[in-house]
Amino acid sequence: MWCVAVCVLMLSGLVLTGPADSSSSAQRLSDVHRHFDKRQHLDPEVHMNISEIIRRWGYPAEEQEVVTEDGYILTLNRIPQGLKRTAGPRPVVFLQHGLLAAGSNWITNPPNSSLGYVLADAGYDVWLGNSRGNTWSRKHQSLTPDQDQYWTFSYDEMALKDLPAVVNHILKVTGQEQIFYIGHSQGTTLAFIAFSTLPELASKIKMFFGLAPVATVEFTGSPMTKLSVLPEFLIWDLFGRRDFLPQSQMIEWFAEHVCGKQLLKELCGNLFFILCGFDEKNLNVSRTPVYTTHCPAGTSVQNMIHWAQAVHGGRLMAFDFGAAGNMKHYNQSTPPQYHVQDMKVPTALFSGGQDTLADPKDMAILLTQVSNLVFHRHIDHWDHLDFIWGLDAPEQMFPYILKLLQEHQ
């Protein structure tokens, strides 16, 4: 499995190296060998699921399953209230993770720096989504993950089939008429597609918060997008027709035996930086074993190809099956385009100046397309991961989100 990750890094033309000074490198390597077998305290969350992590901090946790119209069974995690239990209904906030991620993104920092806990303590009913095909949403009514057919989806289906099923389920369970939606990265892409295409669904959203929003990736400089330099047939041949970077025992071993070693935590942090941007000072490096066992959480190869198509096309479009396949799926020779400007949901966007996935140039275009933009905050020193794991998120982002939620209840 990790050979796939290595392939991605090799395709990116990147090599993990130590310091330029050879004596420093030799000394560091010696230190690694000398200390590698000394067990460090391993964070118990490495081996926990999402609900177990939530309960570990004293919060109530629930798991619920939702069936989509095409038979996928998705797991929703819920934090119904904060540490101070209060009676009565609470406004609902739904959190949707990004590409190759899971609902754990929102709760894998300590409570004061994890948005999921902060929202629960602020009086909100918090729900965490898990996209089809990730670690926690791998069930189907008639298919199994060892069948190619199970993996024939991309962010089209996540937006147009997963989101309606999830939102309607949450409204039914809570008895509310509208919810708040917070998405990160691909979680914002799903919103742009769903809320611009499905007006009935959009009417059920009080406000949309886009963290590191991604509609187009024409200018992205992330190594992950270097996959787009390969022809599609070669991507299929290299990675197969099923899952891409799924969670596995190998990743868990890597997290425990590499990231769990004090001297190697920096390496794991740098792996995340390489894929998503650089800001070593703003990542809690002690948490990298937990990050690593929960992320990447997998997606379909078809979804990765869809992102590669987006890099080439520079537009927000449906999956391109080729002329014949497009006629079959869309009754036209080219895939349909999604129009962000058709989305009328009140929208707040948060962007980062060092973000190589949600590039500032793409962000500048997006700002001209959002027709009901009520707030935008640009954090110049933030990269793509700061929106979920940034040490200064409690100062740079959380107060603004809480204020906007309060104003739009």
Helices, strands, pairings?
Elements (H helix, E strand, L loop, with lengths): L1 H10 L10 H14 L14 H7 L5 E6 L4 E8 L12 E5 L18 H7 L3 E4 L10 E2 L14 H20 L4 E6 L1 H12 L1 H4 L2 E7 L20 H8 L3 E2 L4 H11 L5 H12 L11 H7 L4 E2 H13 L8 H9 L16 E6 L7 H10 L3 E7 L6 H4 L3 H4 L1 H10 L2
Parallel strand pairs: 3-4, 3-6, 6-7, 7-10, 10-11
Antiparallel strand pairs: 1-2, 2-4, 2-5, 8-9
Helix pairs in contact: 5-6, 9-11
Describe the oligomeric state of these chains in a short phrase: single chain
**Uncertain segments of ≥5 residues (pLDDT<50)?**
1-40
- Give the strand content: 5-15%
Q: Which secondary-structure class do the elements indicate?
A: alpha/beta
Shape, please? globular
Tell me roughly what share of residues is in helical segments.
Answer: 25-40%
Average pLDDT level: 84
Helices and strands, in N-to-C order?
HHHEEEHEEHEHHEHEHHHEHHEHEHHH
Distance between the termini: 45 Å
Task: Please provide the count of β strands.
Answer: 11
Largest sheet: 9 strands, mixed
**Radius of gyration from the alpha-carbon trace, in angstroms:** 21 Å
- Number of distinct helices: 17
Structural overview:
The chain is α/β, with parallel strands linked by helices and 409 residues long. Helix 14 links the parallel strand 10 and strand 11 (373-379). Residues 1-40 have low confidence and may be disordered. The longest helix is centred in the middle third of the chain and has 20 residues, at 155-174. It is globular. It contains 17 helices and 11 strands. The strands form 2 sheets. Strands 1, 2, 3, 4, 5, 6, 7, 10 and 11 form a 9-stranded mixed beta sheet that branches. Strands 8-9 form a two-stranded antiparallel sheet.
